[in-house]
Amino acid sequence: MPSRFTRAQIDEVYNVLHANWRDWRLESFGTGSDEQAQPFIAAMMFRVTAEMAEWADALPEGLVRLEPTLSPA
After folding, report:
1. pLDDT in tens, 2-52
2. 10: closest CA among 28, 25, 27, 32?
């Protein structure tokens, strides 16, 4: 089964996260694969900022997973 995302797309997301890890207060990020062996990038952070959410919304669905440690009740 072919990947839904190209290596260039994955690398671009990784590079943006790496460039913004301090500003976005990222705890960690890295690649993974889902139950269909499709790649994605998971990013763990304190909270999702408006800037980060806007950036993620422009990406193909499923490419990045934002996982905040703080979320509304």
Report:
1. 889 999 999 999 999 999 999 999 999 999 999 999 999 999 998 899 999
2. 32
**Half-sphere exposure of 40 toward its Cβ, with a 13 Å CA cutoff?**
18
Strands 39-45 and 64-68 turn out to be: parallel
Q: CB under 8 Å to 42, separation ≥6 — which residues? A: 29, 30, 31, 32, 64, 65, 67
Close Cβ partners of 60 (under 8 Å, ≥ 6 residues apart): 4, 5, 9
What are residue 68's phi and psi, to 5 degrees?
-75, 150
43: left (phi over 0), alpha (psi -120 to 50) or beta: beta
